[in-house]
Design brief:
The complex is a heterodimer of chains A (159) and B (970). Chain A is α+β, with helices and mostly antiparallel strands. Helix content of chain A is 47%, strand content 13%. In chain A, α1 packs across α2. The chains are: A alpha+beta (159), B alpha/beta (970).
């Protein structure tokens, strides 16, 4: 199980990150990246701290965080697998790939396996259309997905 | 009078879609064959509407900047490709625009089809009113089919408890948010046009709303996906007003249907004086809709004005006159005739027994100008003395005195629109975000455009720092040191040569200036010396002074934190000096602006409510002035000033003052030293309270006359910018008489020959006798909406900005402002300083707002205390604490916060059981007797519950509110 840090700890660690990045022009996105790096997600308790420090409203911070799928509200699994569902990949059978993957992992999109090993997410274009269908595992792109590659991926994330 | 005939229909204001352009240059274009000329920078949408061509729109409204997201307002422009949005495209010279073509129709239908596919329709519980702007646009576009079906993901409630994201249908359904007492948020009706979000940001300046998520998941969210009530929302209602669907809708409208008729009237809460359309159905107010033509508010409002009118129909309202022999007796309901006759007889008896001056009256800042005028007229003409005073005594009397002495008028110098031209705003002893919210929104908007802000306040108020605004200087001065700090600001301006010599030489008396300058330049007035006694960093004082003097148009806004001090009048003069020394008087964007507390406190002062002044601030000793009234009223007027409220109470205790008529004021709760007020009232033989409710003062009353709300009468209110606004009757008085009629009945009963049939006749009398009102009439107000006095031959449409070429008194007068510390000092027994203020959702003593759902936001008064002071005393947040001063003690719960400095505690005074004025002392302003509410030395300690006084008081109040069961019918 991944332990959630206590809210006072979130506050102090968030404040340190804000302090470091506050001077940037348009500091909100870098701060959110910093927080996600620190905690593996953007804890809700961090948002009022950011709002106060940047003198904007809680609503505004929430609007930005929720707009970007990459900012997570909960910690992800140890691995993050993103499967492209955009036009090119769809035309090359990514629907079937998705169904297969879901079955192999036993989870749906936006879900994490119970053992915390992997989180599965849809993504809309990785810029790898020439190698459709494509995926991205922990930041590394994988092209021309097929059954063997899926098995390899599953083996890797389960290991 | 049949009022229904007076209001034939609902007033519909035109929505031009985008704000007005302020450009001078005119541009002519052609829209659908019509030639239209508008200022440069106007949107095509607005130009078309001004020319009578309505372009369908969803995300545009003229309260907000254009956004261009709904894709419904598209047009074709000759010579240009594509179909640009008319809201974001500015007009061009010679442009030829078409708003109705087959291509446009097809696009609009396509867009609407998509909207409708995810939107419930029809009139039912799920679909709201079925009469929203959205419904109207769908109708006008003539949508006949929907290829996508209507079972949208957003609005069809999933069956069998399918969790979001897991059903095949209605995956994004969200339950309605009913948490706000006044409006509902139903996400399923939302079309994500962002009008609410933009209204919250651009108009209100709170930024409580956002669009969360993206794509199909985009929703309006209050705060961080919170319920509205828990979010940053201040319930101003701008979002509800902006919403083109029924996603955000007033609960009254959903429950009772749309209003049927309306009249433009003026809010009866604070001194901003917002204009509203009171919208009514079946003799019930459905909603108060801010009126865009209103010059104080331009279509905006706060939670009080828009929503907190429920007191008007609250069950506590007393609708029958009542009398009793002794205040320990239960009340007995009687007819108006009996109550009036009884009162007249008692007043006559008291005057016969104890002398002409043994009775008096108090006018109300809540009532209309006409009503106030009548009360002082009754006192002067009927009681034949000058024992008339008003609640302005306890708030802004020093403003009247201080500005009168320095400039020659007892009022603010600007209109509210002036703030749009301000470069440096200075707020002194005021918290407009709570007490004058609509003005605060306008100021915040200007600050977001780049204006600078200086705040002098013991507390870190919302104006010091909140979303997107932050004061450049906050001077957290110790309560009671205003004069010292303001004089120190002057010291910097003078010694650093930052004053405006040309202005001073032209507009003021140069020798008086030199005298004043030599005084403020003394070392004892330097920031370094003053810093020690006020607790303000001298560098902050220097910085603030430099900014105000050199930052462009400097405007000072101040409140009761200035006036309610033993040196209140001196502080007002110090403010006036600063503005004169820097040349910040007599043009847009500058000036000295008292933020007046009550809807008509300016008016009640104008109307001759003070014991030494006839209407228009003319001293009672002036023979020429008395002559005007003596001729008209046919009596000889007393040429000696009468008693002020505190003097009336003193005289009552002494036995020489025995009867009083109090219209619409709760002196027991709002005046200082509650025990003394109670003793004074208890000593009188006939106390007449004319009010909506059995207020605290009524516990000591012998006669109760039921009052009328602002919805039940015609008249005028004068706001803080001297603007005379119309109040219009939308409902018949529930207790038979409007207040002016009741006063007239009483005046007749004591033998005066009054025959006013309508308040307009009273205004005519005011205009006839008062030079600054000479041009005012209801006919003029009906025609032009409102005017700011002086309104006379020289200024037939009123005077937005005063002292333009010369001060009213001739030369502006510099007056030395020596700092004299208040006698109220801290010491070992009382080491903390208590200061008081208000909160957004409640209003003054709370007689009205406590009787509305506004109490959801503030159900009790709390004592704000700094963590250090709390720690020392072993107090935790929420603990009951005893608050003790030299005058008395009370208990309330603590709120630990660093908004207040160490050594300072703060509370509000909205709830009668708190009895904050049991604590306050009887020190008062040297010139006007305005009580020193803002400084009391206190001690705070742990407590188990209510004090003895609170318990005794409760008991007494319960007893004195008893109403006897009505005996058999007469």
């Amino acid at each position: 199980m991944i332990m959630q840090p206590a809210s006072t700890e979130i506050t102090s660690r968030t404040a340190a990150i804000i302090q470091e990045l506050k001077g940037l022009e348009g500091p909100l996105l870098p701060i959110l990246h910093g927080i996600q790096e620190e905690f593996g997600h953007v804890p809700k308790d961090a948002l009022p701290v950011i709002a106060e420090a940047l003198n904007i409203s809680r609503a505004e911070v929430h609007g930005v965080v929720s707009f970007y799928h990459d900012y997570r509200s909960h910690p992800a699994g140890r691995h993050v697998l993103k499967l492209c569902q955009a036009e090119s990949c769809q035309s090359m059978g990514s629907d079937a790939i998705a169904a297969k993957l879901k079955q192999l992992l036993g989870i749906g999109f936006h879900e994490t396996t119970r053992d915390g090993s992997v989180t599965l997410e849809p993504v809309y274009c990785l810029g790898l259309c020439a190698c459709s269908p494509a995926a991205m595992l922990d930041g590394e792109v994988i092209g021309r997905l097929n059954d063997e590659k899926l098995d390899e991926i599953v083996a890797e994330v389960r290991s | 009078m049949n009022i229904k005939a007076d209001f034939p229909a609902l007033i519909e204001e035109i929505d031009y879609g985008t704000p007005q352009s302020k450009a001078q240059k005119q541009v002519t274009l052609n829209v659908d064959g019509r030639s239209i000329t508008v200022p440069e920078g106007t949107s095509i949408m607005r130009a078309a509407m001004e020319g009578g061509v309505e372009i369908p729109k969803l995300c545009a409204t003229d309260m907000l900047d254009s956004f261009g997201s709904c894709r419904v307002c598209l047009v074709e422009i000759e010579g240009r490709g594509g179909t640009p949005a008319s809201c974001t495209t500015p007009v061009g010279e010679g442009m030829i625009v078409r708003t109705q073509t087959e291509r446009l129709d097809a696009i609009r239908r396509g867009v609407m089809e998509l909207y409708v596919s995810d939107h419930p329709s029809g009139w039912n519980e799920q679909a709201g009113t079925g009469a929203s702007e959205f419904d109207a646009v769908a109708k006008s576009i003539g949508l006949t089919e929907n290829r996508y079906g209507i079972e949208g993901r957003n609005h069809v409630k999933p069956e069998g408890g399918v969790a979001p994201g897991h059903g095949s249908l209605a995956v994004d359904y969200i339950a309605r948010d009913e948490s706000n007492p006044y409006f509902t948020y139903d996400a399923s009706q939302c079309i994500v046009c962002s009008r609410c979000v933009r209204a919250c940001e651009e108009v209100q300046g709170t930024f409580a709303l956002t669009i969360e998520g993206r794509g199909f998941e985009s929703r309006v969210s209050a705060g961080m996906h919170e319920a509205f009530i828990d979010s940053e929302c201040v319930s101003c209602g701008a979002c509800v007003q902006a919403c083109p669907t029924d996603a955000l809708r007033e609960k009254t409208v959903l429950a009772k249907g749309l209003p049927e008729r309306s009249a433009v009237t003026t809010c009866a809460y604070c001194g901003v004086g917002c204009s509203f359309k009171a919208e009514v159905k079946d003799d019930e107010v459905i909603r108060m809709m801010p009126y865009k033509e209103g010059k104080a508010n331009h279509g905006h409002s706060c939670v009080k004005g828009r929503f907190a009118y429920g007191y008007a129909t609250h069950k506590d309202r007393i609708l029958s006159p009542m009398i009793r022999e002794k205040v320990t007796d239960p009340w007995r309901e009687v007819s108006w005739e009996e109550a009036i006759a009884h009162t007249a007889k008692e007043f006559r008896r008291i005057q016969y027994q104890y002398g002409r001056t043994a009775i008096g009256g108090i006018t109300s800042s809540r009532c209309t100008n006409e009503e106030t005028y009548l009360v002082q007229k009754m006192v002067r003409q009927g009681f034949r003395n000058n024992n008339v005073d008003t609640c302005a005594r306890v708030c802004h009397s020093p403003t009247g005195y201080g500005l009168g002495q320095t400039y020659g008028t007892s009022a603010g110098t600007q209109d509210f629109d002036s703030v749009d031209f301000t470069d440096v705003a200075v707020i002194i002893g005021a918290n407009p975000a709570s007490a004058h919210p609509v003005f605060a929104s306008r100021l915040k908007k200007r600050l977001r455009q780049g204006a600078k802000l200086i705040v002098l306040d013991p507390r870190r108020t919302e104006m010091v720092k909140s979303a997107h605004i932050e004061a450049d200087y906050h001077l957290p001065l110790k309560p009671g040191t205003n004069v010292a700090v303001l004089t120190a600001l002057a010291h910097v301006i003078v010694t650093e040569g930052l004053f405006d010599e040309a202005f001073i030489r032209e507009r003021c008396d140069w020798t008086e200036f030199q005298d004043w300058a030599s005084f403020v330049a003394l070392p004892e007035n330097s920031p370094e010396t003053v810093g020690k006694l006020s607790g303000v960093d001298p560098e902050l004082i220097r910085g603030a002074a430099r900014l105000y003097a050199t930052g462009g148009n400097g405007a000072i806004y101040y409140g009761l934190g200035v006036t309610e001090h033993s040196q209140g009048s001196t502080t007002v003069m110090a403010i006036a000096n600063l503005a004169m020394a820097t040349g910040n008087i007599g043009r847009p964007g500058v000036g000295v602006n008292p933020l007046r507390g009550q809807n008509n406190v300016q008016g009640s002062c104008d109307m001759g409510s003070f014991p030494h002044e006839l209407p228009g601030y003319r001293h009672i000793s002036g023979e020429a002035v008395r002559d005007i009234y003596e001729t008209l009223w046919g009596v000889k007027l007393d040429d000696e000033p009468g008693l002020r409220i505190p003097n009336m109470l003193d005289a009552a205790v002494d036995g020489s003052f025995r009867g009083i008529y109090i219209q619409g004021e709760d002196i027991l709760q709002s005046d200082p030293d509650t025990k003394h007020v109670a003793a004074g009232l208890a000593a009188m033989e006939c106390v007449v309270v004319h009010d909506l409710f059995l207020n605290e003062t009524a516990n000591y009353a012998h006669v109760f006359l039921p009052g009328s709300t602002f919805l039940e009468k015609d008249g005028t209110f004068t706001n803080a910018e001297r603007r005379i606004n119309m109040v219009r009757k939308v409902l018949e008085p529930k207790a038979r008489y409007a207040d002016w009629e009741a006063t007239q009945e009483l005046a007749r009963a004591i033998g005066l020959d009054w025959n006013y049939e309508h308040p307009s006749q009273i205004m005519d009398e005011i205009a006839m006798t008062t030079p600054s009102f000479a041009g005012v009439s209801f006919e003029l107000l009906d025609r032009v909406g409102s005017v700011q006095w002086p309104c006379n031959e020289k200024a037939p449409l009123g005077t937005p900005i005063m002292h333009i070429d010369a001060f009213v008194r001739g030369k502006g007068k510099f007056i030395r402002t020596e700092y004299v510390a208040t006698d109220e000092r801290t010491g070992p027994r009382f080491p903390l300083l208590l200061t008081t203020g208000r909160i957004l959702s409640q209003y003054n003593v709370g007689a009205q707002t406590r009787r509305t759902d506004n109490s959801m936001w503030h159900s009790e008064d709390r004592l704000e205390i700094h963590p250090h002071d709390a720690e020392n005393r072993g107090l935790r947040d929420g603990d009951w604490v005893r608050l003790t001063s030299r005058s008395g003690e009370t208990t309330l719960r603590a709120l630990i916060t660093d908004r207040v400095s160490p050594g300072v505690v703060y509370t509000t005074f909205h709830h009668p059981d708190t009895q904050a004025n049991v604590i306050t002392t009887d020190f008062s302003d040297w010139a006007t007797n305005c009580p020193e509410y803002k400084v009391t030395a206190v001690q705070v300690g742990a407590s188990n519950g209510p004090s003895e006084w609170q318990r005794d008081y409760d008991e007494q109040a319960r007893n004195s509110r008893r109403i006897a069961k009505l005996e058999a019918a007469e």
